[in-house]
Amino acid sequence: MRFLATGLLAASLALAGTAQAQQKPGELTVAMTQFPSTLNPHIDSMLAKTIVLHMTQRPLTTYDEKWQAICLLCTELPTIENGKAVPVDLPEGKKGVKVTYTIHPKATWGDGTPVTTKDVLFTYEVGKNPDTGVANMEQFREIVGIEVKDDKTFTVTKDKLKFTYNLMNDFRLLPAHIESANFNPAQAAEYKKRTAFDTATTNPGLFFGPYKIAEIVTSSHVAFEPNPTWFGEPAKFKRIVFKVIENTAAMEANLLSGSVDYIMGELGITIDQGIAFQKRNPDKYNYDFKPGLVYEHIDLNLDNPLLKDKRVRQALLLAINRDQIVQQLFEGKQPVAHTNINPLDWIYDKDVKTYRTDQKKAAELLDAAGFNVMKEGYRHNAAGDRLRFELMTTAGNRSRELVQQVLQSQWKSVGVEIVIKNEPARVFFGETTKERKYTGMALFAWISSPENVPLTILSSKHIPTKENNWAGQNYTGYKNPEMDTLLEAIEVELDKGKRLALWTKFQAIYAEDLPVLPLFFRAEPFIVPKWLKGIVPTGHQYGTTMWSQNWAAN
Amino acid sequence: MTRFLSIRFLQAAIVVLVMSFVVYGLIGLMPGDPIDIMLSGDPNMTSADAARLRAVYGLDRPLFERYLGWLGGAVGGDFGYSRQHHQPVLTIVLPRLLNTLYLMIFAFLISVAVAIPAGVYAARHPRSLVDQAINLFCFAGISLPVFFLALLLIILFAVVLRVLPAGGMTTVGESSFGDRVRHLVLPVATLTIANIAQVTRYVRSGMIEVLREDYIRTARAKGADENRVVWRHALRNAMIPTVTIMALECGTLLSGALITETMFSYLGMGKLIFDSILANDFNVALIGLLFACSVTLLLNLVADVLYAALDPRISYR
Amino acid sequence: MASVTSTETAARAADDAALPPPTRPALLVWRRFRRHPAALIGAGVLIFLALLAVLAPVIAGWRGQDHEAVDLFNRFQPASAAHPLGTDDLGRDLLLRLIYGGRISLFVGLVTACLTASLGTTIGLVSGWYGGRVDAFLMRLCDGWIALPLLPVLIVLAAVDPTKVGLPAAIAKSPDLSLYRIVLIISLVAWTTSARLVRGVTLSLKTRDFVQAAVAQGASTARILFVHILPNALSPILVAATLASGNIILLESTLSFLGLGIQPPVASWGNILTNAQEIIWSQPMQAIYPGVLIFATVISLNFVGDGLQDAFDPRTEGR
Questions:
Q1: DSSP assignment string, A437-456
Q2: What's this model's pTM, rounded to 2 decimal places?
Q3: B36 vs A1, A37, A434: nearest CB
């Protein structure tokens, strides 16, 4: 029987290679691993939702694939230079800014109602109400007020003049003509149950993007059709279906069997699956392994007495061979990180201090730190404490588990003992990192946008404690007054040249102090059939679906 | 018997009530909640946002208070709202329940349709080659991890032979009955393969036992037609313990098809319960679990009654 | 079984001598068991796998390999003299990993089945013997327990700080913690089957003459339960435990699939198989080997359980 099973599988796999990618004219079926819990642009925060919404909507502004800020719904990006943004003095001596946007004149909701400043005001009203359940409220909180000039032009006053003053990347409009009936400011908490985005999702009036939602089945799929009122480049497909397949092995089978045409990188298969798939099917698909702003790293608990010593942290990074990991496990497709700044970001300092593998130097540093007694193959200090850390990550993430085991083995060769302890994601993120319960190392990723200021991650004001109800994301407990002032200075520095100098200094401190051990930036495999054109991975959280009007069959 | 039944029903109701509390408590005890996960995936969200969201979803109130609130609503027929899907609980649960029923009924019917003839044949020819082959296939079916079995089936039928879809409920944009059935074949096959062994073996051993009984020997001695003896007299008696075990199997099928549902992207109860637990969607998880729990209890009760009817040595007070 | 194998030749001689009535029940059982070729083969497979598992460190020493030493330059090597089954995704010898994985999987199966059986037997004995309210309570507990969702229990337990519940630091800090957790959880969940089984046996034995006689002679309850009733319940318990250990090995792999199983670098067949499913298209053998091992083990356990059942059942005699 077992030989039968073996034989069957082997034969199956051999034959599987002969499968051909198929295409139904005018249709495209895309696989993704997650289904959005809601389609309301402001309730909850979830990558799947953003991806689906960008088929049907556009925020005011965004970053393009070159990581430059651009206008999507507005006509021209307001700047201080072109006079559309004006610094102002606010009461209490604060410096603010007034930014004027004009909505695209042809922007129209799918039911024919024009997109106007009424929608802007309504969105602001919903968003600033604390009971609505808006996930990212910062963008509403920083708004002091909105003045409307006409149907298409409005001016936003923000309470702080940051270098990102002209961006409203997450400001997605709600259709006032539909949603105002569902929103009662006195009962804002009811809005999330009433919103038409979940109760009447196929209402064309909810969308103004290239596509509108034609059919939606919870947890199964979303089907899109072209939206005739779209003001940009017209949509090319008659029908696009996003199909949810959670298991990535099953997802690959769906691609091979032809029931799915394309696997999107943002929510698709893992990098090693992608690499293996490419090796087996080199000619049938186009591949794009776009390295992005997903920063895989190890948070070090700086309250751990062993990790307080900078020499130990530096030695830990010197002892591992990240180039080898990236080359052997990921075929060099994921760039090694030296700090949290991606090499593709314009603020990246190519002369930043790097830690090329040097186990000899690592050993010297560890000796100097007092861990010079070798017992049972591991280093101990004079007091008999073993150089031993717990390395934790999310259980069930195969790529991370592989990296973890390689690191364990590399650290062992300089006498550092690593105990691997993994937990389900909800325990890991919900308690272990948030409440800083990990004792040594926590391996995970931060997702960010271009030129993101990691204030909540590195500022000493954002260390989660019981007293502040675990607010903040500075899980390492990193405290450096110089870093604190630097972060705040970067945020309000408008001059690009001066800001670059600050960023360079930031990277120098980061690389010297090593509050976290940088590993690499994750790459996402896009597996695109040869006949499908126009898919341009961006590498940041505003992904490919933002340009879905360019997708076309050849 | 009436008294026994009413006591058991009362007990079952208490078990369900206690279960609802235990499950609520367990989900509440789980560390972290979906808002923490949101936080870890979105660099723009602040901790203040998280605290506010918790208040909006009532996740900041004490667990017991929330439970009482839920219980009050549930008794009045209001099962609440799904936090995860932003829809009323029954809107979410009922279609899933229907999907699971399809899956269960098909798997059950096929199991029975194959298991009874196979089990009877094996019992009539114990130790024969066919008996041993049936035995081998039964054991083979229950000796592979379900996710691996499912993957093998997908590879063979969807990727290589391309005769069946690899997963999903229907082909999007098509809603014919035939299409629906095609999507059911592989998940049903997986469930059947994993469950058929139990039934077959019970039919076989029940049958062997019955065929040894005096009244069967008498019937045979009187020259009754062998087929009539086996299929009419013997099978009916042999089926009683089998029905018991099948009743129990059904209960586990309801919530236990999680792995099959995951592998085939089939929208059933098992996956729904699993996802709602992970997402702290209390209302959906509770209703799903309590439903599964009630069915199990009910079938257990049926099993006990059948036992009592079968074995006069066991008495129920 | 040990005493059985030592008398094997005697048994065969007895068999040849036209079946004189055997003197020892164990002998009788063995004679019946021996008539099951599948069960015999199954027992052989299990003994072989168990031997490999026990000898894993010896084999590692003999081959001079470390099952946890990562070698990134030797990933997915094809089979060779040095690596009879090739190497895995981190360049470790796959054969050695499978042998060490067997150690864990078989350990989980065996230990958990024993724990489950003891717990279930105790509850079943008490429930069946005392009857009445005790019985009603325990059996309703049993009902509720079956319906209890495994998943939140697992996640809650995953978050419990083991040092706070009084576990010694050596265990709490050990990488095998996930292993102990799995054993504990499955035992806590799976006792219901044997409890029902033993309760049933106790119920029917309670009214038998020899038990009534013991009661009349004033034997203590413990003595009646453990000396008179338990031995009569042993054979169904043994059969159930054999079958259960197969299910437990499967459950371990399912938990790995859900990301709640035994954590790397500790290898188990379940987590080797789960990890391999993502690479099944490029490296199918990485999935097939652990799959076959799980399959062979579980099917062997089923056949052995089946054989034992027949061997213990006196009515199968003479067919």
A1: --SSEEEEEEE--TT---HH
A2: 0.84
A3: A434
